[in-house]
Structures are given as structure tokens and as C-alpha cells.
Specification:
heterodimer; A: 111 residues; alpha+beta; 21% helix; globular; B: mainly alpha; Ferritin; 0% strand
């Protein structure tokens, strides 16, 4: 009896959250981890959406950057630190480390 | 160009002949010493560049070299301590150090843009040489898997620095 009574309310509030979320930021905004270890970005290819947060986890004793070739982002990750950034623009973005240009990876950012 | 090439070749042949002269592949304590020495050499060159370079990209590159090589050499020292390996001086390390101090003296005589160009050109050549030694000699000879792993990461680091140096060199032209 009780669960039945509360169900419509719960459903409505979920709808409200979804709707308001859809207007402000994508409702499915996710946090995606990209690890930097032994001079490599892993995974080397990641799919994400605009509004998602990337957690750049640097496990190396070296400072790195995640620098978009098209200039869309440039994140510096100090040694043994995690840095977050939010994806703002859609596109297939190749990025690299400015300090070690042999470190390369790809982010596919959907709208 | 001639200077750059001949420097690289000279260093490479020193690396090759010194190890070959011993008639055997280098041991882990020797490999650790060579790798550590290679880092120390680049730090010394970078410190000279930080005080002498006039171009800001060259200066920034030199600062990157100090930061990276100090970090990796610390990691290397931690590893040899853990493995209870005592780095052992050897002919290859000696040859590398001797050649590097000659190069430092040569660079010390240059000024301004001439110095900047010569430093960066030598960085390209030096990293190329060390990469060759790591790939063909040090990594294949290393027997401890953790030491081998650190050298493999070191190779990627040196390759990254080489590309970075090539980029800076291209910008100077």
C-alpha cells in the first residue's frame, strides 16, 4: 500500500530532475578516468559527451600535459596528481603531451 | 650539421666499443650506472642552458629537462636501493661523462642565438644517441625485470625529449 502511494511522487520528482538537468547540463554527464602512466595515456581512445568530466590521473613521477591539437583544451597534470576538466566542445580531438610529444591519444566528444 | 652528426656518432661508437671491449653485455649494476649518468649529463647541460640561453622556449625546455631527469634519476635510485643493486662505474659511463664535459666546455664559449641553437642541436643528438644505446644495448642486456621496465619507460621519456628538442630546434630556424 505505502509503496504504491509514493510511487507517483517519486516518478514525478525523477522526471523533474531529468528535465531540469536536461536544460542545464546533459542529464548523463559522466566522469571518465584517463590514466597517465609510464609515458602513456590509457585508454588511448575514449568516447565522451560535452559536459562530461575527465579525471586525468597522473601516476608518473613526471609532469605531463593533455593538450588538444585544435586548441580546445590544455590541462597540466603534476606528478602523482589527479586533475579534472570538463569537456566543453564536441569533436574528435587528438591530444598530446607538450613536454613529451610522443605521448598521443584521442578523445571523441559527442554533442 | 656536421658537428651534430659527428658528436652523435662519436658518442654512439664510444657506447658501443666500451661495452664490446669488455667482451660481454653490461651487467645490471653497470646498466644502472650508465642510465643514471646519462640523466646527470643532461641535467648539467640543462643547468648551463638555464643560465646561458636567451630564447625563452630554450630556457623552458632546459627547465623541463632538469625536472624530468631529476625525477627519473630519483626513481632509479629508489629502485636500485630496493633491488639492493649498487651502480657500478664502467668504461661506458666514463666515456659518456668525458665526452659530455668536453661538450659543456665547447658550449660555454658560445653566446646568444649561437648558444641556443648549439644547445638544442646537441640535445637532439644526445637524446638520439641515448635512445640508440637503450634500445640496442641496455634494455636487451638488463636482466632484472623492474630495471628493464624502468629503462623501457626511460626510452619513451628520452624519445619524448628528442621530439620536444626537435620541435624547439625547428622553431629557432
Amino acid at each position: 500500500m505505502r509503496p504504491g502511494r509514493y510511487l507517483p511522487v517519486t516518478a514525478a520528482s525523477v522526471m523533474a530532475v531529468l528535465l531540469s538537468g536536461a536544460i542545464a547540463v546533459p542529464a548523463h554527464a559522466a566522469t571518465i578516468q584517463i590514466t597517465i602512466e609510464k609515458m602513456e595515456f590509457a585508454p588511448a581512445e575514449v568516447s565522451a559527451r560535452v559536459g562530461d568530466t575527465i579525471e586525468w590521473i597522473n601516476k608518473d613521477v613526471l609532469a605531463h600535459t593533455a593538450t588538444a591539437r585544435n586548441g580546445d583544451f590544455d590541462v597540466t597534470t603534476p606528478p602523482k596528481k589527479t586533475v579534472t576538466s570538463v569537456l566543453k566542445k564536441a569533436g574528435t580531438v587528438e591530444y598530446y603531451c607538450r613536454y613529451h610529444p610522443n605521448m598521443k591519444a584521442v578523445l571523441r566528444i559527442e554533442p | 650539421m656536421f658537428v651534430r652528426l659527428s658528436t652523435a656518432l662519436a658518442a654512439l661508437s664510444l657506447l658501443g666499443s666500451a661495452a664490446l671491449a669488455q667482451g660481454a653485455k653490461p651487467t645490471d649494476p653497470q646498466i644502472a650506472h650508465i642510465a643514471y649518468t646519462a640523466g646527470v649529463i643532461d641535467i648539467a647541460a640543462a643547468k648551463q642552458a638555464i643560465s646561458k640561453a636567451s630564447n625563452k622556449d630554450v630556457k623552458a625546455f632546459a627547465q623541463d629537462m632538469v625536472r624530468d631527469h631529476e625525477a627519473v634519476n630519483k626513481q632509479a635510485l629508489d629502485l636500485v636501493k630496493k633491488l639492493k643493486v649498487t651502480p657500478e662505474d664502467n668504461d661506458t659511463s666514463k666515456a659518456l661523462s668525458k665526452q659530455a664535459s668536453e661538450k659543456l666546455a665547447e658550449l660555454a664559449k658560445l653566446k646568444g642565438a649561437d648558444y641556443d641553437k648549439a644547445y638544442v642541436a646537441n640535445e637532439v643528438a644526445y637524446h638520439k644517441t641515448v635512445n640508440g644505446a637503450l634500445e640496442t644495448q641496455l634494455i636487451p642486456s638488463a636482466s632484472n625485470p623492474e630495471l628493464k621496465g624502468l629503462l623501457q619507460t626511460g626510452l619513451k621519456l628520452f624519445q619524448g625529449h628528442q621530439q620536444h628538442a626537435e620541435h624547439v630546434a625547428a622553431e629557432l630556424k
